[in-house]
Design brief:
The complex is a heterodimer.
Chain A: H1 4-14, E1 19-20, H2 23-28, E2 42-44, H3 49-62, E3 66-69, E4 86-89, E5 96-100, E6 105-108, H4 114-122, E7 126-127, H5 140-146, H6 153-156, E8 163-169, E9 175-179, H7 191-195, E10 204-211, E11 213-214, E12 218-226, H8 229-241, E13 248-252, H9 254-264, E14 274-282, H10 284-298, E15 303-308, H11 312-323, H12 325-329, E16 335-342, H13 348-362, E17 366-371, E18 376-383, H14 390-407, H15 426-429, H16 432-445
Parallel strand pairs in A: 2-4, 3-4
Antiparallel strand pairs in A: 1-2, 5-6, 6-10, 7-11, 8-9, 8-10, 12-14, 12-15, 13-14, 13-17, 16-18, 17-18
Helix pairs in contact in A: 1-3, 13-14
Chain B: H1 7-10, H2 13-16, H3 30-35, H4 42-54, H5 61-68, H6 75-79, H7 86-101, H8 105-114, H9 117-128, H10 131-134, H11 144-147, E1 174-175, E2 183-187, H12 190-195, H13 197-209, E3 213-215, H14 225-229, H15 233-248, E4 254-257, H16 260-273, H17 279-291, E5 292-294, H18 295-301, H19 306-309, E6 315-319, H20 323-326, H21 332-339, E7 344-346, H22 362-365, H23 367-384, E8 388-391, H24 394-406, E9 412-415, H25 416-420, H26 422-425
Parallel strand pairs in B: 2-3, 2-4, 4-5, 6-7, 6-8, 8-9
Antiparallel strand pairs in B: 1-3
Helix pairs in contact in B: 4-7, 5-7, 8-9, 15-17, 16-17, 18-21, 23-24
The chains are: A alpha+beta, B alpha/beta.
């Protein structure tokens, strides 16, 4: 689709080292964690907003699509080059430009890996809380574009809550700054928030200014086992209702525990039907007090085990239970649909009950775990695609799970985004007017529809 | 592509399906850390292997280039949420490439030489295996680089000295110990036999000290790992059978090696790639694998005491985990032995479990990248302020020495057994 002349122009922009179009390169930039695959026509690795701007201007004049990509670890296909075109990889832009300890802000390029950034600020006693499960390999640019969450969102919020400003190359090639590095600022529309979670459809992020926090003094990890799923779900709302906001409130249902226990034999009590992994952080004395309060509050809710980590090593041991969930799911069935619905915190017990009904109706295993503290449940629909009829059943079940979340005042995705995977379900959540408003924004910024076309909004 | 050409890949087709392309391998792959491009990742190679099976791509230069960018260090396998055995998939792909395209000049030479100890004894090892390293005299920009499928060219690499007399030539086949004490076959390995003979001497001294009967089978060959690295699995199979016969000729309680790489071959690779169509052979190789034990692990098991290993002089050391130890779960034993040795202070470096960058023949094909990976290692070693870095693999020793010399550092590089045997050999 791209002729030799365009390839040459792209080569002139990024240099021959940073453009690739062999069949092998195209395959390796055609996938992400959705297991869908679309081959691009070429892959470019630009460095800096100027190169990105030149690529986008060329795309407008020549009419080829451009698909921004970080680490390619997304769960919804946001970075996939559906229909072909140019994949624009941001990972060469991987510098931490500055960490300002006076103002508690940092400026980074989009290709910095999340964990690398966290370690750099932690060395200075500072804290960047967003912790998506992919933090060891996903990039900050991707985190902003998808508005990544993570377990610590209960207390600290998600990626957008830490983005103060951006440098963005608009789809038509203009380089703009949004926001800034002041805590307050109300001049103009809040374009920063608009770009956060826009899934690479409204601009290519080339710089990010993050807000930082002081690193918490101490933390305390607790593993709590309940004799009913309802008890665990009620524990979540009880803790919050009593004005304690833990850093993390991770939930695992019985199916999850069976998976983990079968594979890893962690010695969880047989009577356990659900687990909550609770972590509090802050002042050392305060968290001691909070841990005691939490114990008292949840004790009457069918608590069968309460373990508190004495040190970092024990904390890691308790977290192991949660980390082993993903690797053990495959034992249920080879293929999984990993959805990430959210409901208001108090509705967690209701949504779990609704999912149990759906599971029975379709007779396919559904394993639930996730960030119950903010109402974000990872619903894993486990099937074997080889078995005729299972894929269709899965799609029907997913639809009902989404409907359950929406009925309870929630949303179909808390942190994975829409991309291609959830696009067909959009009309369930957004009204025609909402979609029209969003499309008007897209058209205004990207009149030729060259930047990540065909994503998020219904086509 | 015909079925036969991708046959080795069909062997691992079911394993490929386990990869969900999540990208976790990006965090751990040393090859990706230096190339920074997706084809160097584990999931990239799995995707390419899948497309090879489908016939969308062929076993051409591009595939060859991607598949060469793997150190077979196994770190992606350990950290993979789905335990995808990318190392096995890469080995299969390299075998398919070798079957289709023939071996590269370099790997042909490797295959010929490692199959023939007689040739090796005449110094051909130096010419054939280390040779390419010696040849790094043509400037990096030379067109020769394009002519040869692997760069014979490079910088000022530090090449270890070849021993004047190989270790095995210095000792009889059987060294009798005390009655009732274990009988141990010593699988020496090429690096110890031809280059780092001191490791062999120290190992021998330690087990003799413990009263063991040490058997050094004359018929033992190269373990075959360098062949595997290039996809020459036929050579591996041939060597596996030769080594098996040489070892089985002796009655022994253990087959011990002081080389992590050789241990990996005997323990994991042989049962994996040899004897698919010969259950009897496979069973014998599995028995050999079960008997194979690392020198440090066996020393601990046989109860080597701190009194026997005290060095006298104080020394600050740090420990590097060879990949073939890490993947076999050998990390605690060497540290335990070193830690309790009077006079030794063990300080952990950052990323002790990260690959040194040697990666079999990766180092020959991608020398600059190998050094790039190693640079991080050298920095971590230097940061500990240790007098010596200690490890359990002669291959790592060569690479670590090169890296530290390139960094202008004087930290010594020693094998665990060399330190443990100091008092005994004094």
């Amino acid at each position: 689709m791209l002729d030799a002349r365009i390839l040459q122009q792209l080569t002139d922009i990024v240099g021959s080292e940073n453009i690739a179009a062999t069949p092998q390169d195209l395959i390796c930039y055609g996938y992400d964690a959705t297991q869908m695959e679309f081959l691009p026509d070429c892959v470019v690795h630009p460095d800096g907003s100027e190169e990105v701007a030149r690529i986008l201007k060329l795309a407008n004049s020549e009419g080829f699509p451009v698909f921004p990509r970080g680490a390619g670890s997304g769960f919804t296909g946001g970075a996939l080059p559906k229909g072909g075109g140019v994949v624009l990889v941001t990972t060469r832009m991987n510098r931490i430009l500055r960490i300002d300890t006076d103002n508690l802000v940092a400026e980074v390029e989009p290709g910095v890996v999340t964990e690398t950034f966290q370690m750099a600020v932690e060395k200075l006693g500072l804290f960047y809380p967003p912790d998506p499960a992919s933090l060891k390999f996903s990039t900050l640019g991707g985190n902003v574009a998808e508005c990544a969450g993570g377990p610590r969102a209960v207390k600290y919020g998600v990626t957008k809550d830490f983005v103060m400003g951006l440098e963005v190359v608009l789809p038509t090639g203009e380089v703009i700054r949004t926001g800034g590095e002041t805590v307050k600022g109300v001049v103009g529309y809040d374009l920063t928030k608009l770009i956060c979670g826009s899934e690479g459809t409204l601009g290519v992020i080339t710089k990010i200014i993050f807000k930082l926090l002081p690193y918490p003094d101490a933390k305390k990890t607790m593993l709590t086992v309940f004799d009913s799923i309802d008890g665990a779900a009620r524990a979540v709302s009880t803790i919050i209702k009593n004005k304690i906001i833990p850093t993390t409130l991770e939930f695992m249902d019985h199916a999850t525990l069976v998976c983990v226990e079968r594979r890893f034999n962690l010695g969880l009590p047989d009577s356990g039907r659900a687990v909550l992994l609770i972590e509090v952080d802050g002042d050392r004395d305060l968290i001691e007090k909070q841990a005691g309060q939490i114990h008292r509050l949840i004790e009457p809710l069918g608590l069968v085990q309460f373990r508190v980590a004495k040190d970092a090593a024990e904390s890691e041991e308790l977290w192991r239970v949660r980390r082993l969930v993903s690797p053990s799911l495959r034992d249920v069935n080879p293929d999984k649909f990993n959805e990430d619905i959210v409901v208001p915190r108090s509705k967690v017990p209701d949504v779990i009950r609704r999912i149990e009904v759906i599971q029975k109706r379709y007779d396919i295993p559904i394993v639930n775990f996730g960030h119950a503290g903010d109402g974000n449940i990872h619903v894993n629909i486990m099937i074997d695609k080889q078995v005729p009829g299972q894929l269709e059943k899965a799609h029907e079940a997913i639809k009902e799970v989404f409907q359950a979340a929406l009925d309870l005042g929630g949303t179909m995705s808390g942190e994975h985004g829409v991309g291609l995977a959830k696009q067909p379900y959009i009309p369930m959540e957004l009204t025609a007017d909402q979609v029209a408003a969003m499309k008007a924004i897209k058209r205004a910024l990207d009149p030729n529809n060259i930047l990540n076309p065909g994503k998020m909004l219904p086509v | 592509m015909t079925k036969k050409q991708i046959d080795p890949l069909e062997r691992v087709a079911a394993e490929m399906k386990k990869c969900v392309k999540c990208g976790a391998c990006r965090a751990h792959c040393p090859a990706f850390s230096t190339f920074q491009r997706e084809p160097a990742t584990a999931r990239g190679k799995v995707a390419l292997a899948q497309h090879l099976c489908k016939g969308d791509i062929t076993l051409d230069d591009g595939t060859y280039s991607a598949m060469s960018k793997c150190l077979l260090c196994g770190s992606c396998v350990e950290k993979c949420p789905n335990q995808v055995p990318t190392d096995e998939i890469v080995i299969a792909a390299r075998e398919a490439l070798a079957q289709r395209r023939g071996l590269t000049t370099f790997h042909k030479a490797v295959g010929q030489v490692i199959r023939n100890r007689k040739v090796m004894n005449f110094g051909a090892l130096a010419a054939a295996i280390l040779g390419p390293l010696f040849f790094r005299k043509v400037p990096a920009t030379s067109g020769l680089r394009l002519r040869f499928p692997m760069p014979f060219i490079g910088g000022s690499r530090h090449i270890p000295q070849i021993a004047k007399k190989p270790f095995m030539k210095r000792h009889p086949e059987v060294i009798q110990g005390e009655p009732g004490k274990p009988r141990i076959v010593f699988f020496v390995g090429c690096m110890t036999n031809f280059v780092y003979t001191e490791i062999g001497e120290a190992t021998l001294a330690l087990f003799r000290h413990l009263g063991c009967t040490v058997i050094i089978p004359k018929g033992q060959q190269c373990c075959g790992l360098p062949g595997m690295s290039g996809g020459d699995l036929n050579t591996v199979r041939e060597l596996a059978e030769m080594n098996l016969a040489a070892i089985e000729a002796h009655q022994a309680d253990y087959v011990m090696t002081a080389c992590a790489t050789c241990g990996g071959a005997l323990h994991k690779l042989y049962p994996l790639v040899v004897g698919k169509r010969n259950p009897e052979l496979k069973q014998r190789l599995q028995a050999l694998a079960d008997k194979t034990v690392d020198a440090a692990v066996l020393l601990q098991k046989l109860g080597l005491t701190p009194e026997e290993t005290g060095t006298g002089s104080g020394m600050r050391i740090t420990y590097h985990d060879p990949c073939h130890h890490r993947t076999a779960g050998i990390t605690k034993e060497p540290r335990a032995l070193l830690k309790r040795t009077p006079g030794l202070e063990l300080v952990e470096m950052e990323g002790a479990d990260r690959c040194c960058g040697l990666g079999g023949t990766f180092n020959v094909y991608h020398y600059e990248n190998s050094l790039d990976i190693n640079a991080g290692k050298s920095a971590a070693i230097i940061a500990t302020g240790a007098d010596a870095v200690v490890t359990g693999c002669p291959g790592c020793i060569m690479q670590l020495s090169d890296g530290l010399k390139q960094a202008g550092d004087k930290t010594r590089v020693l094998h665990t057994v060399e330190l443990l045997a100091r008092k005994i050999r004094r």
